[in-house]
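Colleagues,

Please find the record for the four-part complex below.
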Amino acid sequence: VDIAQGRLFAGLPAEARAAILAGAAPRLLTARQMLAPQGAPATTFYVVQVGHLKLSQFSPDGREIIARFAGPGDPYGGIVALGQPTYPVSAMAVEPARVLAWPAAEVQRLTAAYPQWRANIVQEIARHMTDALDRVQELSNERVSQRLARTLLRLGAHGIPRSGSAVEIAHPITRQDLADLTSTTLFTVSRLLSRWEELGLIASTRGHVSILDSAGLRQKIDVPEDE
Amino acid sequence: VDIAQGRLFAGLPAEARAAILAGAAPRLLTARQMLAPQGAPATTFYVVQVGHLKLSQFSPDGREIIARFAGPGDPYGGIVALGQPTYPVSAMAVEPARVLAWPAAEVQRLTAAYPQWRANIVQEIARHMTDALDRVQELSNERVSQRLARTLLRLGAHGIPRSGSAVEIAHPITRQDLADLTSTTLFTVSRLLSRWEELGLIASTRGHVSILDSAGLRQKIDVPEDE
DNA sequence: CGTCTCTTTGAAACGCGTCAATGGCTGTGG
DNA sequence: CCACAGCCATTGACGCGTTTCAAAGAGACG
């Protein structure tokens, strides 16, 4: 669980990594604990050490949109480095987790002292921006089955290898979560997963999903759903 | 047409503005001319002086998604200040236009010399990121009529005042453009605009739209479409 | 003045959301 | 340790908003 190896610390000498880590305080989270709500003043920059966070937005009528999941090495609240006043998304632990926390003032000091660290954080934010644009594309042009297949493969890319070529998604995830990730309903997700399970593409238990045939899933992106 | 008054130059002393402007070269565009295609190496930072650019993405199958329109004072290609390698969206002039162009090296030099300028550019980019997230929300939760009303009001906010309380959208815009902005088809847009024109909410001629009753349009956001 | 682009309107099909009802798994408290 | 209460998942039927396809009209440009 060595955060200092992650892409946020790429290109930094060991002494810089040590100095930056020295500015952080660890914080423990229980499952379903809220780390920071969307719209709250952005006072702290976080990096996940253990466990997973769910980063999501809530619409006025209570519907949830999951932006992404953050696992070990992933940052949350990078916008404090850009001087944004509030968090654009909420962060909640989906399982017991441990995060490192840097106060905004500390981030100011450290980014000034280590420009490469600032560049890495900004880089990460830029990636999330292009991700958001890509998502608008997908929402506009693709069917639910295509988006769901894409989402599963994306989650599987950071998953845990199982027997054979199977990969299990690294954190607990419900049908509702998958629906909130792909902008659909849990019913449609359930129907698709049932069908794909019959085809041997995936396997699932309550709160967990494994990908058995990633090549077959990839086809579902190109060829919507015919049968 | 004084760019130096825009929000990109907020908080900068006059001499800094002059120094920054001195680093730019003007460039003229004809209607429908492509300034930079999505995916091309990000070598230049632009600010619109006259006219309007259409910033859009194209999906593999040729469908277009318009991210936004950029008018006088609006930047394009701010990601060069973040060190991103390529443009995430294409920029094309929708009418004859004039832009200022800074080469990447010049941007490096000027942002180092004037940190406030860098902060303004980053600020702008952060806004576009939250915009993209908001758009995902809208695409997921709202009907076409709501999104279209929202889009028209957004465009009208930068429009040209006409007789009475009418506001004309500042640049040429087709039904297809509105469809690409709201992620729908030109047919659905045409139907909605026809109905709203009967209700006296808008007026339109080929390639142009005016908002006559912005309060009435705003209602269409909250109350989808009943009649 | 012809051609091309933009627009309108209708009719039909379809994907997916909504609603309803049921069943299974999990963790907690008696 | 068992049982109950919640949460999560499944499946079917139905309806509705939009897309799709087709065909024709109208304005703009060279």
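The helical segments of chain A are 14-22, 104-113, 115-141, 144-156, 175-182, 186-198, 214-222.

Comments are welcome before we finalize the supplementary table.
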